Each structure stands twice: as C-alpha cells, then as structure tokens.
Queue: 2 jobs
Job 1
Amino acid sequence: MIGFGTVGQGIASVLMRKDLGLTITAIADSRSGLMRDDGVDLAGVLERKRGGFVVGDVGISPMDVVKRGEYDLLVEVSPTNIQTAEPAATFIREAISRGKHVVSSNKGPIALHLKELRRAALSHGVQLRYEATVCGAIPIMHVLEEGLRGNSVKSLHGVLNGTSNFILTRMAEEGLTYDQALAEAREMGVAEADPTYDVKGIDAAIKLVILSNTIWETDLRLEDVVVTGIDQITPDAIRLSEDEDATIRLIAEAIPERGICRVTPRLIPRNHPLVVNGTLNAITLTTDLAGALTFVGKGAGSIETASAVIGDILHIKERYARGA
Amino acid sequence: MIGFGTVGQGIASVLMRKDLGLTITAIADSRSGLMRDDGVDLAGVLERKRGGFVVGDVGISPMDVVKRGEYDLLVEVSPTNIQTAEPAATFIREAISRGKHVVSSNKGPIALHLKELRRAALSHGVQLRYEATVCGAIPIMHVLEEGLRGNSVKSLHGVLNGTSNFILTRMAEEGLTYDQALAEAREMGVAEADPTYDVKGIDAAIKLVILSNTIWETDLRLEDVVVTGIDQITPDAIRLSEDEDATIRLIAEAIPERGICRVTPRLIPRNHPLVVNGTLNAITLTTDLAGALTFVGKGAGSIETASAVIGDILHIKERYARGA
C-alpha cells in the first residue's frame, strides 16, 4: 500500500476489524516505508501514524516498496496530483510492468492516463480498478460493469463534489451567503483550507473525465470540460429558485450524442432524485433499456472510501488471484 | 422462454433491435408453444401476440418446452402466483434438474421457495438469477453481489411498489383523496383493475421477503412481514405531513438486528433520498463500511424489466456458458 493518509488508514482499520483474507505486506508514505512479507502490524502502524511518528524506515521509499516489495496487488492511495499525476502514475506503471494488479483511489493517474494504463494492464494480464476515485462509497463502476449488461449509457448527470453540495445546501437551508457557508464548511472539515478545486468545479470535472472515459472509452481530458464553479452563487439566486420549488446544485453532465461535457450550477426541481443534501454524492445514468437510474451515497470519508478500495481488491482476489 | 406477457414481449423486442448474441429456441405461454432450435422468429411471434392470435402450436404446452426444448437457460417470465408459485416453480425445478440455468422475473417461486431452488441449482451446478423480481430496472442484486464486497448490510428501507407511490404522490401534489388518485392510476394503467396487492402492501412485502432472504440468507415467509397498506391514508394526513416539510410513503423495511420486518406508510422528510415521485422505486441499504446507499429507478415497465432479465442472462452467459 502506497499512501497512508485518510484512505490508507481507513483500509488499515477495516482490515483490523474484519477478516477479509487480505495481508498487507508493505506500506509506504512520503516519509518512510515498511516491508513485512508475513504481514505488517497494522495496529502498530496506525498508532505511530496517529502519534505523528514515521510509520516505517526512513530509508525505504514508496518506489522501493513498489519495485522490491512482495505483493500480488498494489493499493495506490497516495494524494492526487492533478497536474502531473506523479509520482503515483510511475508507481502504477511500475507495478503493472511487474505483473501486479493495481487498485487506486488516486484521481490523478486515472484522469490523465487511463487509456495508457488500461492498455499496459491488458498487455501484462493484470487488473486495474479505481472505484474509489469517483462517488466515494457508491459502487458506480461495479454497476456500470456488472449491473447494466445489455444497456447502452446515453448520458450521465451527477452531484460529484460533496463540498460544493454542502455549501449549496447550507445556503438554501439557512439563507447563508457563499462566504458564510464556506466558513462553516471549513470549520466542519468539509472544505479544505484552499477550497479552489472543490468550489470552482475542478474536482467534479476530474471525476466527470474519469466516468466518461470509463463508460464511453473516450480519451477526454480535463481541458475538454466546460467548468463553472459555485463561488458566484448569491443568496438571491437561491431564494428565486425556491420560489419555483427548485434549488441550485453543481451538476456534472456528459451527453456524448449532443457533444455536452460540462460542470455548472443548475436549477433543479427540489423533488428531483439528484437533489441530495449535505456532502452526499448522487449520479444518474440514462440508459436505453433500464431508463434513468440514480445512485446516492457518501462521496467521501475514510471508511467509505476504504470500502470502495476493498471492494475492488476483493473483486480481483475472487476472480484473478493465483489459484482462484 | 416461458410466459409471453409484458416482460416476455419486452425481451423479444430488445433482442430484435440489439445483437446480444442470444437465441431464443422456444417460447410458450398458457395458450400455445413453439420450438425452433435455430431460433424463433421473434418478429412473427410478436406480431401474432399483438394481434390476439396464439403464438405457436396449441398442442405444445409450457411443460413440453421446459422438458423437451433445446436450451441452455430457461427464462421464466410467466405471471406471478403468490399462493402456490405454480406452475412456475415446477418449470424452474424441472429446468434445474435438467442442468439448465434459470433466470426468472416471477416473484412467486422466489418468494416462496428461494432456499430450496438455490440448493437445487447448487447441486446441479447451474445458476438461478432473479434481478427482475424486485425494483424493476434497478440492478440491486448485482450491487449486493458485486458492489458491496467486504460490507455487511445492516438494514434495508425501500419504496418497492410503484402503484402505491404513484397514488401517494398524486394525493400530495394535487390534494386528491385516495379514491380519486386510485381512479387516476387505473386510467393511466398504473393500477390494475384489482389493486389489492399493490395498495394493501402485499406486493411490497413479497419483494421485501425476496430481498431479505437474498441478503441475509434467511427463510422468511410472507406471513412474517407486518403489513399495512395505503388505502386508509386521508388527504388530511398528507396535508399535516406537509406542514412539517415531510410526506407519506409506503416503506418496506428490514432491520434483522432489531427483529423488524414490515411494510407500512411512514412520515418521511421531503428531502430524504427515498422520497421519489410517481411510479419510481427506491431502495436504501445501510452498510457497515459504505454507509447508506440509495438506488432509484423505474420499478416496472416492459423494457425496464426486460433489461433486468437480459442483464441476468448475459451475466450467466459471460461466466458460466459452455466454453466461456
């Protein structure tokens, strides 16, 4: 496992309380690394991390672990770098070239290099999965692969950024200004110190790129998405929307047939399934046979994101593990 | 394929317009049957059915097809008989004993005999799938099997009956009485001439039994579900709920830890994800890791239900077909 932040710690705590037949043989973060072929002591690692100590040996880097570690599957949960996707992209390429499966929660490599990484995985006979990169706990990738066989997806609409949705919800519920709602989001840990990616719609656009490229096997880039954020929304605009029994939500939408791929605040009837509150995420797929299907769930959170990563690991374990 | 009503015709029309690599070698309904090892002429069969003619040879019964037909997989889409599950249960048992996979949209056999049929399928090395029995187009069974690996489901709450939901929606939107809304539902083809099963909560209870027995591998029976319908709901009750920014929905819920298994009208905040309008279905699963996940989609319809049946067929084809 590369990366030991919120997601990595979530995975470790789940594995400590549930026996899922998985062994973590190495962990590395940006400060240190640890390799134990018979299984890392997760309780000890979590305790050191939470105490502010290094988790392993400062002489062992993430690249050492990726290159020399004994493992069947790389769990790549290091922080997203959306400019270069590095160093995560290199870790993933390296693991694939060693014939290792990869599960990632890292939006950088998947948004920037999905086609290349998929091709590499295919040619090395390994699996690459990334359920956790979009919509947190919602198993949207599994639904796309498994649940909609026989269907063609015509379009997708989603509330893909929990921070923006929280701010819009609070503005509507309490008549707050954008700045007041953002301040509240920061206090509650829902918004980061620099909320630019979230409130400017960039995070939602990244997820839209990942979903679109997955569904339609396109090679869409972040620059191809038309993006408007929520930071110009006024309390007046929200009050006016409420007069029509509607509200404003930051909607990511892709409709290939009409050449539409954008993230923009939209007026939506309050009783529409995409109108979810707080930090929830929601996604609607419009299909040719099953009609419109909407999925709602937590878009972030340590254990929720860990759930998506673990779902991917178990999927690979069941179907592709040696001897399975 | 046994049964050629709404679902069967939906399947036939999808197979006519999409090449999914499937061949229907026999069709039978209560009036006649037809066997063509190289593939039934679906256009002709649909035309005869829609013209009110028999689809095949009146000398060929469904049981003839099940027992003597050449097929890999039985598609059982005949009408539900919730008292005895017959004759569908016998067709399914017979097909399984012949070593054939089974996909069914028929709630009778699955609600009454799931454990027995599963065991039979297991011992004959075949698959039994029934996505279409609950929540129409929502791929809830696939989500349970594939999307929530590593999770334990703690409870489920659902709006599982589209007719009741339509009536409650119209009562709230237009201030109609129950009888007025029911009359409208009948006119629109949303309610049957005898709406008892829908409005008394029995249809929802049947689906709750199927979902519960699938998730928790229990042996729950319809009699174990506490059921209250919507036919006693007054416009006053709905008006009162609206004063609290809530509404009334017929909720099916199962919480095994608390011994709860019931279908009953409940007051729910209007912004709750389960508050869907019209004939939509919705289901919330509460899990230990992924938190609460809600799925919304069309609960009925010819093509939507066909989508669920076809998804099951393709699932089996990809993984278990001879030579796959």
Job 2
Amino acid sequence: MKLKLLGSDPTMNLAMLAEQCLAMAKAARAAANTLATVRTERKNAWLRAAADRLQMQSGDILAANARDVSAAPGFGLNAAAIDRLALTPSRVAAAAEGLRQIAALPDPVGEVREGGTRPNGLQVLKVGVPLGVIFFLYESRPNVTVDAAGLAVKSGNAVILRGGKESLHSNAAIHAILSSELAAQGLPREAVQLVGTTDRDAVGQFLRMNEYIDLAIPRGGESLIRRVAAEATMPVLKHYLGNCHVYVDRAADPDMAERIVINAKTHRVGVCNAAESLLVHAGIANQFVKRIVEALREKKVEVRGCAETRSFVPDVKAASEDDYAAEYLDLVISMKIVKDLDSAIAHINKYGSKHTDAIVTNDLAASRKFVAEVDSAAVMVNASTRFNDGFELGLGAEIGISTDKFHARGPCGLRELTTYKYVVTGDGHVRN
Amino acid sequence: MKLKLLGSDPTMNLAMLAEQCLAMAKAARAAANTLATVRTERKNAWLRAAADRLQMQSGDILAANARDVSAAPGFGLNAAAIDRLALTPSRVAAAAEGLRQIAALPDPVGEVREGGTRPNGLQVLKVGVPLGVIFFLYESRPNVTVDAAGLAVKSGNAVILRGGKESLHSNAAIHAILSSELAAQGLPREAVQLVGTTDRDAVGQFLRMNEYIDLAIPRGGESLIRRVAAEATMPVLKHYLGNCHVYVDRAADPDMAERIVINAKTHRVGVCNAAESLLVHAGIANQFVKRIVEALREKKVEVRGCAETRSFVPDVKAASEDDYAAEYLDLVISMKIVKDLDSAIAHINKYGSKHTDAIVTNDLAASRKFVAEVDSAAVMVNASTRFNDGFELGLGAEIGISTDKFHARGPCGLRELTTYKYVVTGDGHVRN
C-alpha cells in the first residue's frame, strides 16, 4: 500500500484524516510484524544502502530543504532555528554516516539478555524483541528523520514520523529515499512512514491508536511533550527539562572543579545535559566562589547567586526561586552556597529535573552518598554533565534522553526501543 | 504522621477524601525517599520479623478475617470466592513464609546491572534503584496484602495498598502488624499504607497523583484493570487476559503432547497461565484428536472444536469465534485443527493475549519459527504453559504477570519493581 501524503488533498476533512491515520497505523503494524523477524544483515544492508543513496541524491534533499529554509521566516523561525533547519552537503553526509554507525551497532533483537537452566532442567532465556510500532514526533532538524528511521528499523520497529511544519519538504525528500530503499531491499516500505500533513488533529488521531501503536516518543519543546503525555493512550518515552547541577564539594580540587563547571556550562549551552546550576560547599566558598564567577564571566556566562555568593562577589545578580528551577539553555547559571553535602542533595532533589547531576570531590564517602541519594537518571562523579549522552556512555546513537523512570532512564539507544520475551524449553515438562 | 483509616469518618466528603489521599501519597513519597537507601540487611530484618509477628498474632488476623467471611455473602461472594477470602492458620503461615522467601532473594537495589570503562577512562555503571511509590489495587485474597508489602519494601518502594471491600478487616489487621513492625525496625511506617475506605472515588484520587505515585498495579478482574488503565496518569503495570494456547505440531510426540495439554488445561483451571485453546496440526490430527478429546473429557473438560475436530469426534460442541477469544478460567477448552505451523502462529497472534503459548514438537526448525514469530510474553517449547510464573522461571515471588511490552513483560518480581540510574565516575573528565 502506498499512502498519499495527507496534506496533499485540500478537501481533507476530519473523518478522512482519521481514516488515513488509521490506514497508516495498520500498515505500520503489518510492517512491524514482518520486520520483527528480519535478520540483522538485511537491516544493516538497508542502513548502508540508504546512507549511500542519501549522499548520492543529496541534490534532491538540498533542493527540498531550500524551500523549507525560504519559508522559515514565515513560520517565525529566528536565525538560530533556521541554522538548525538548514542542510548542507556535509550535514547530509553526517546523517548518512549516522546510519552507517547504526549498522555497526549490535542488534538488540534476538540478544539473549539472561539465561539459565532451572533445577528441573527447563532452559529459560530472556530474549530481546522489538516493541512494535513507534510514533515519533519531533521539531525542526531534518537529520532527526534519518536518525529516527535508522534506529527504529535496526531495532525491528516500524515508525510513523511526524516532523515539524518547518521541515516538511526536507523530511518528505529524505523519507522518499529511505522508503524506496526499503522496497529495493525487499523490506516492508511501511516500516518508515511520514505523516505528510502538519494538521495538529493528525497527532491526536495517532495518540488514540494504542491498538496499533506501542510507544510515542515526542522530542521537542516542553509544550509538545506535555500535550503528548496528556493525550497518549500508549506509553510515552519522554524528556522534560534538563536542569542539571554541578556540586563542588568541600573536598574538591579547585582546578578540576573549575574545568568541569566551565565544560558543563559552556561546551554547548542549548542542550539538555548542560549545567544550569552550580552549588558550592560553604567550606570551599572562600577559595572557589570568586574564581569561578570570574572564569564563567570570561566565557560570557551571567551568574545569578544567593546572598552568600553575593557576599563574595557583590555585583552578582540575585537568584530567585525561579532561577533555581530554570533550564536556561543559555549563557546563564544559577549559583548557591550550601552548608553541607546533605543540603546540596536536598537542593538537587527539590529543584532538579532528575536528568544529570554531578559532584566534584575527592572524598569517597561524600561521592558514595551523593550517588546513592541524588535521584537522577545519571549521576556524575568528577566528570562533566555533558557525558550523559548515548555515544559517550557507550550505547551508540540515541533517540533521546528519558527523564522518566519507567522502562528506560537516561539515554535511549537501540536496546531501549525493544522489550523481551521469555523462551522456555523443556523435554515435555509439566508442573506437579 | 499516623493516618486515620479513611472509612472511619461518616462525615467524609469528597474534598476531605481528596485531602487525605494526598496526605497519604505525600507520606508515601517521603517514606520512599528514605527507603531508597536503606541497606538490604535492614529490609530483610523487617521481612523476617514481620513474618514472625504475623504468625504470633495470627489470632488477631483470623478474628478480623472471620468478620469479612461472615459479611461475604452480603457482598454476593459465592462459595469459591469465600474460600479464597478465608484465612486459616496454615494460610497465615504460608503468607509469613512468603516474606521469609522474599528476604532470601537478592536485592535489586544497588545491583550493578551493566558496567564498563569507556576508552577515555570514564567508568559507567548502570545501577538498580527503586521506582518510588507504587499504588497497588487488588481484590479478595488477603494474603496478597502480605506479598505486595513484602515485595515493595524489599525493592525499596513505598506502597499504597487498596484491597477489596470483602477483605477490609483482614487487610487492616495484617497492615497493622506490618506497619508497626516497620516502626519497630526504625523504618518509615508510611512505607506500607492501607487505604482504609472502599470508596471508589479514592481510587480516582490516587490515579491522578502522578507527582507522588510512580506506578499503579491493578490486580483483579478485567473491568478493574481497564478502569485503572483509562484513568491513571502514571504508568500502569497490567495483565489483561491469559488466553494461552498449546499447539501440537505434526512432529510432536503424542504422549508428551497429551501430558502437556492435560497439565496446561487442568493443573489449575482458574489461573492466567492455564491453557484455554488447543491447536493441532492437520498432519497429526488422525492420531491425536480422538485421544486428546477423550483424555480431556476424563478430566471433566468440555471441548469446543472446529468442523474438522468434529469430523473426528462428532459429539464435540462447535466452537464459535468467541470461543477462540475466550479466557474460560474453567473446565472448557477450544480446539482447532490447523493446516500448518504458519496457520497456528497466525491464529495465536490473532486470538491470543500475548501471555503464554506453547508448541509441542521435536522439529527444531518449527520450534525456532514458533519462538520467533509468536508475539507473547512467554513462549514454551515442550513445556506446559503453567511454567510462566515467577517462581518457576527463577525470579522468586512475583507481583503479577505483565501482558504489556513496556518496562516489564511476563512475571514481575523484585527487579521489575525497580529502575536504574547511570553512575559515571571520572578524574575530572570534560568533553572535547
């Protein structure tokens, strides 16, 4: 079945929209059933061939992207957003390279995760299997279309992609290549489908179809994610805020602490694992506060601090409660001097977003306590918060970083897009 | 904080109910925060002491249970349901023994599930941590109160228990002992709370509190589970139907096949992993159908079959579409002769409940195909469906069997009540 791009029909009404969404979801389910048992080598062959074709046909992609870029100011995109939207030959090559990297990763499907033989001789294996159908919603950057399709197919899942209106033409050009290469490789074309309309009602339609869709993954602004979480009838893998902390303990090496704070805050300011808040133990404040404020300012970072911070550096702006809860994604950091480790942990568990929080210390007992009591997806000891990332933690490519606790926490790579089944083999075993 | 039993106040209105539910949820969150870092030996000490006290104070429990049993006919319970509700000294002893078994299981909290060192020297560990607060809803059997409390506390979670109205007094007596023993052991009393009202509105209140409750687990009839799934704002670990199949392949040993079918159907008829449907390969039907119908009838099982089944045994009742979808939980089985393995797999994936399905065969290729293509939590080869059970698969005690794919599939033991965090340790690592 070849689905028409939904947006192409000006007479579309809600009933027709619902019908087409349902047809897409059913086609995805059928494709997922086929894909679940496709051998790794065939999925990898598609990934590599699709990578080659993305580069060979980059002219088509760049032409489509040019249409999106020229329309972008009309959607209210600022220069930074347009830069994220724009593709270049090297960005297309990087997306293609991403597919080749996914091909090189181990297949989580069929992976025997645990296994053993029971005292009665029954063999029990826990084997990785795909989740099924994923509904993936995202904004802006068209290379995400490539990543998401590659991760979904490699993990044996069908995916319904719903990109932003800003990147509609780019996504359609990319999807046409990925989809035709699925067919060329004898794989189900509907394993990767693109929602061809930017009608918001289409999202609501898909979010109701828990009979056909196993997981929704929204990636974008907080309002998109909250809408999906509220409306979805299937599980949602989501990431709200990244309000990440660096806590500089009394037993920190000041040079190391400065290096980590500067890296965590300034290495890339617009990402979820960038530091947004700095906590300093009172016992090291005298040595450290002035120095770090100067180092941050040298990197153009605005510091907003507590009263005690300001007693060391009077021209620091006062931090409000809102500052401690903020995910700035900008050259701003909140700062607080805490009286001890317990206060640091309490502050992080109160204001943090359970994403990534770091301690800098050489005190083993302090690091053990921090690791045990800070309730975050990743806790870093003497390392920058920027390391909470699928590549850096060794998962390979990731579809996002989960701030949920259920199913998957932290970076979600291929394995997090799968579940498992028990395979139990006997010789005619019955229960007594 | 000591919470009053909600049902004890006849002037209770909805606002008061909401307030008391919120207070319970907040207290549970605080208890969970404490419990998350309590050492295993202290949790085990509570499990063993609570087991002893349940037996020592079994007189209180039995007296409370007698009140429930005498009120049971008024709630419309039949004799079988009253039997499940009734406690005896040996049933109390069995519940206590369950706690001691949980004490003997490994603690999933703090378990290092994966770990390694990245090329740059960063150590990355994936460490088990509790989910937080669990809202557990269940019906009838008061020993479930003991199991659920034991599993929750051992896995570091606080639990809010909401039992059925039929077992209100029994649950209150059991809860009083478990809770006072938490206090005696210096653990937070609110780690195990019992909702003291059977007001259905209380359930709705808790299901809205995703800020304080991390997981809802409904255990009971399908309508309860569907209500919870529809209303819950937090993840739900659930089990719908157990429409389990046994497929007797052409290459089955008929003796083994009979043994497995009889065990799967009749070992315990009222449980979710009992077989409800029998599929027989056409190539073995001549040898097997008459024999298995007779063997089932000898065990008082009514057989409902397809036209071809009835061509072998004419007095078999005709099976309808509804029969193939039914979870009888009774001495009834549906039966169908299928033309090949593919038809068997297609039938199971269409009518089954993704719970437990078995193949009986000595054909390795057939077993590989069945295992790969049947999309169920547990797939059994030459073994009874009855083995899909936490104890039998080696997980120890279980809180239920999940038919979901997300987070946990199949039996949910201690580890399935936890999540993980990444613990990343460096020597001042920053990203380049």
